[in-house]
Amino acid sequence: MRARNRLSPAFVRNAPLGKHCDGAGLWFVKREDGGAQWFLRVTVHGRRREMGLGGFPEVSLAQARETADRWRAVAKAGRDPVKERERQAREAARADTTLKAVATEAFEARKAELKGDGKAGRWFSPLQLHVLPKLGGVPIDELDQRDIRDTLAPIWHTKAETARKALNRLGIVLRHGAAMGLDVDLQATEKAKALLGKSRHEAKNIPAMPWAEVPDFYASLSEPTPTHLALRLLILTGVRTGPLRHLRLDQIEGDVWTIPGEAMKGRRGQTPDFRVALSAEALRVIDAARPFERDGFLFANTRKGVISDMTLSRHMERRGLEARPHGFRSSLRDWLAEATDAPHEVAEAMLAHVTDSSVVRAYRRTDFLEQRRVLAERWASHVTGGAGRVVKLAGAG
């Protein structure tokens, strides 16, 4: 039988660099960076296995010997200690029913439904920032409405939209816990909402520019810069800022710009590609922006990636305008309602809004592209100052 307990606590504290054997496969390693760790070597079915037992001084000599004895017994019984430890870790993970563990599992299960697999973090962040720091360690089957109320009360009136999202996500997590077979209170979020009361916060719409004022603003965007050109195209197309900022030239074919479904607002896999009818003026703006193209993106940042949302907003803010870029969608929608006879479903299609029931949409095969093409030209005519007058881009053509 090999000698054991060769090392002493004093030696371990002052050990020189290198590997030092305590006996029976237990080794102490002192690294060049000053750190140290324990590992155990055993033989199972003729195969040598090594497993780490932790670092020193977190794991003392006595603790390392005790742990080594436990895993030697596993090896003696003919089981691989490395795989056995992995199995125990998996079982422990399954047994973890804290809110944090279940919330993480619920998020993973829903990633396929989220835009970009949820990498932006918007689905999980309300929980991560405002719920899990206080309740993450609470077993989900012990969570009640008072816990939720006390956690969300500080932001219920000051950050109402964030609190609403956190409550919504929490409800989804509770349902996921119930699906796991845990005894959770599925009404806890509704009860908490009743305890919190009505929020004093009033939701505010993004300020929009009246459609009659858009031509003057459009005419002021006379510089051939990415910011001016992006704002022009934003106004002309009525799209959201995200797809516009990430516009790639290979998405344009003729006078149609196809926005991939994953770039549209909605759940991944449930949002189809969206075709944008480009007016002659929009095509002129795109041509003027081509010199700024980099890596396929039409509105590239001077350093890396694409221009930011804040770049467009700050331009309007510096001009002393209350309106913001996203508000041009409202400008277009109001113009469609007040200055055209466009049918409701066509007007809504201009903004990629979903209308009617899922059954009706399933049978309707058109996206009203031809009707939208006519409206896009009429809107461009209005924006550029009236029929027959097109604002010429500085430096273009």
Automatic annotation (TrEMBL):
Signal peptide (residue range): none
Protease is among the record's keywords: no
Keyword Plastid recorded: no
Keywords from the UniProt entry: DNA integration, DNA recombination, DNA-binding
Domain of life: Bacteria
CDD domains: INT_P4_C
Segments forming domain Tyr recombinase: 204-376
Gene3D superfamilies xrefs: 1.10.150.130, Integrase, DNA-binding domain, Intergrase catalytic core
PANTHER family: PROPHAGE INTEGRASE, PROPHAGE INTEGRASE INTS-RELATED
Family, similarity comment: Belongs to the 'phage' integrase family.
UniProt protein name: Tyrosine-type recombinase/integrase
Organism: Tropicimonas aquimaris
